[in-house]
Design goal:
The complex is a heterodimer of chains A (about 220) and B (about 350).
Chain A (H helix, E strand, L loop, with lengths): L4 H39 L9 H14 L4 H7 L1 H8 L5 H25 L3 H9 L4 H40 L1 H11 L4 H30 L2
Chain B lengths: L1 E11 L4 E12 L4 E6 L5 H8 L7 E6 L2 E2 L5 H9 L1 E5 L10 H11 L4 H14 L15 H13 L5 E5 L7 H18 L2 E6 L2 H7 L2 E6 L2 E7 H6 L4 H10 L6 H9 L4 E7 L8 H8 L3 E12 L2 E11 L2 H12 L3 E5 L4
Parallel strand pairs in B: 3-8, 3-9, 6-7, 7-8
Antiparallel strand pairs in B: 1-2, 1-4, 4-5, 9-10, 11-13, 11-14, 12-13
Helix pairs in contact in B: 3-4, 3-5, 4-5, 5-6, 11-12
The chains are: A mainly alpha (about 220), B alpha/beta (about 350).
The structure holds adenosine-5'-triphosphate and magnesium ion.
Chain lengths: ~220, ~350
């Protein structure tokens, strides 16, 4: 069976748009959420500026429970929750919720890891100057970790493009959906190739932008 | 002014207790440079970090500028910290900020207006001689330059006290000297009280007025640097002094002297004011005794001369003992025995 390219191109453009939208929305929400969780995880650690055993254990446990779940299973598992919040489990908007949750915990770990690698002496210097914990978070921790943090988030973005394709296969729209319906169910290789090429291009662009930004902040 | 009264700091759990600081009482007076010396693990850093409450005392009382600090609220504590500058062995500069940004940081914390801040940062850059590095990032600076930035940053808010945790230990001897000079300048020009800790006696000798020697969390000796140098009481103190004031003859040299034994060996210990007079030659001449200086180590300490000579006296035994008697009225003398 041959695809009608004249009607097919608009579908591809639409699907690409959906994928980009899903990834960008998820990226924004997941970065904010992940940054908050990661920072909380770091500052509540033993001996740190806002040491709090309970918050630390709770967040740590939560991350360790959610992160190992394969995304496709997580997607299905939380669909009742998705329906409750978004009213549906189908479509781009509905896909953003599970993607955000899954990505936020990954971002949190990356944030935490980058914060841990900051020299504690620098934090101590700020404390010795009389900086409050909140002040330290915004004027020391985030700026000091920003370069590697952006690289980490770039890495997540690439993963999100992957997530979005998976979300597509269960009705999330986007390129994954397209590849599934045309390429997999109708055995149309040419559609498959076009989708794959577009996905590769998106990944390249994301990586390029991330590298550029992080280089700017690392100033190296 | 900093005063510790019976201060102790204990780390760890019930099973594994580390008594980092034990029952320390000492006072750092306003405007002086006070040094604490000790081997690694003696508790120096812990003691220093108690001053700005980076560490809380387990017991005892700490008074800074007439205020008991362990009872301060969070806000008062932050205020106090802005009155105490701190510099570190590893500099601890913000790598994401320029030299200018590093020095501006404490001023921003203190809420300075942009214009005043700019003026102050430039003033500090000039003070530490780094005007041309304002826009550079710390990673492009040498160790000495980094510590200059550290000092400028610590002094930006005009604190009354500067505390230094091994500020020169990561630097080579020449750069160490530069930084020590700068600390002296800080003390003189701004009348800032400095409390520094180090494991190098050289640093104490170079800049401190008073010194405390720490061992196993305790202060085992304390006093004017000159007095501690000339009359050390503890073995540890003596070891530290030996590290900068090597006036021991090697056993090899002693053996050689013994072979050609001619006269008696004496160590002449010079104190203030006498070493610029030709006492040795005057007195020896008077009794027709020859002397031979084998080894000498005289140096300046706190703008006084201090050190010792090892001298061999050759002549009639009666005459030599007369020389010794006369010399003993002016300087301290000790016979050095060959067999050791
Ligand atoms: N936060 C801490 N938790 C547990 N033990 C500590 C802590 N800080 C210091 N100690 C212990 O307290 C003792 C004194 O340490 P401190 O760092 O004050 O020594 P120091 O004289 O500064 O040594 P160095 O010259 O190596 O810096 C050491 O045995 C150290 O292991
Ligand atoms: Mg130390």
């Amino acid at each position: 069976m041959q695809v009608d390219w004249a009607t097919f191109w608009p579908r591809i453009i639409e699907a690409t748009g959906e994928t980009i939208l899903m990834v960008i929305l998820t990226l924004i929400f997941a970065t904010i959420l992940g940054l908050v969780i990661g920072l909380l995880l770091f500052v509540t650690r033993k001996g740190n500026i806002l040491e709090n055993r309970w918050i630390f254990y709770f967040l740590n446990l939560l991350i360790n429970i959610i992160r190992p779940i394969p995304f496709i299973i997580f997607l299905v598992a939380i669909s009742p929750f998705t329906r409750m919040i978004m009213g549906t489990t189908i479509g781009t908007a509905a896909a953003v919720l599970p993607m955000t949750i899954a990505a936020a915990f990954a971002v949190a770990r990356i944030v935490e890891n980058n914060l841990v690698s900051i020299d504690p002496g620098i934090i101590e210097a700020a404390q010795a100057m009389g900086a409050s914990p909140l002040r330290i978070i915004f004027t020391v921790l985030i700026p000091e970790a920003l370069g590697p943090l952006i690289l980490g988030i770039t890495f997540i973005t690439v993963g999100l493009i992957d997530f979005s394709a998976m979300a597509g296969t269960v009705g999330g729209g986007g390129l994954g959906d397209l590849a599934m319906t045309y390429g997999y169910q109708r055995f149309d290789t040419s559609v498959m190739i076009v989708t794959v090429v577009i996905l590769i291009l998106l990944v390249q662009i994301a990586q390029f932008l991330g590298n550029m930004l992080s280089r700017f902040f690392l100033r190296r | 002014m900093i005063r510790f009264t019976n201060v102790s700091k204990t780390f760890g759990t019930k099973e594994n207790v580390v008594k980092a600081v034990q029952d320390v009482s000492l006072e750092v007076k306003k405007g002086e440079i006070f040094g604490v010396i000790g081997f690694s693990g003696a508790g120096k850093s812990t003691l220093l970090r108690l001053v700005n409450l980076l560490e809380r005392p387990t017991s005892g009382e700490i008074i800074v500028n007439d205020k008991r600090i362990d009872a301060l609220s969070q806000k008062e504590l932050r205020q106090l910290r802005s009155r105490i500058g701190m510099i570190f062995q590893s500099f601890n500069l913000f790598s994401s900020r320029t030299v200018y940004g590093n020095i501006a940081y404490p001023l921003k914390l203190a809420g300075w207006s942009k214009a005043k801040l700019d003026q102050r940062v430039k003033e500090m850059l000039r003070f530490v001689g780094l005007e041309d590095k304002a826009t550079k990032y710390p990673e492009s600076l040498s160790g000495g330059q980094k510590q200059r930035v550290g000092i400028a940053r610590a002094l930006a808010t005009s604190p009354d006290i500067l505390i230094c945790d091994e500020a020169t230990s990561a630097l080579d001897p020449e750069t160490t000297e530069e930084i020590l000079q700068l600390l002296l300048k800080v003390n003189k020009e701004y009348n800032i009280t400095i409390m520094l800790i180090t494991h190098e006696m050289h640093v104490i000798k170079r800049v401190c007025n008073r010194v405390a020697v720490m061992e196993d969390g305790r202060v085992i000796e304390e006093g004017q640097v000159f007095n501690v140098f000339t009359k050390p009481q503890n073995e540890t103190t003596k070891n530290f002094i030996r590290s900068v004031q090597n006036d021991q003859l090697s056993s090899h040299l002693l053996e050689k002297l013994q072979e050609s034994k001619r006269g008696k060996l004496y160590r002449i210990i010079y104190k203030e004011g006498v070493s610029n007079q030709p006492i040795l030659s005057k007195i020896s001449k008077k009794y027709q005794v020859d002397f031979n200086i084998l080894y000498g180590n005289i140096s300046e300490l706190q703008e006084r001369l201090f050190g010792s000579l090892i001298v061999e006296f050759i002549g009639e035994e009666v005459e030599v003992s007369k020389v010794i008697k006369e010399l003993e009225k002016i300087v301290e003398l000790k016979e050095v025995h060959y067999a050791s």
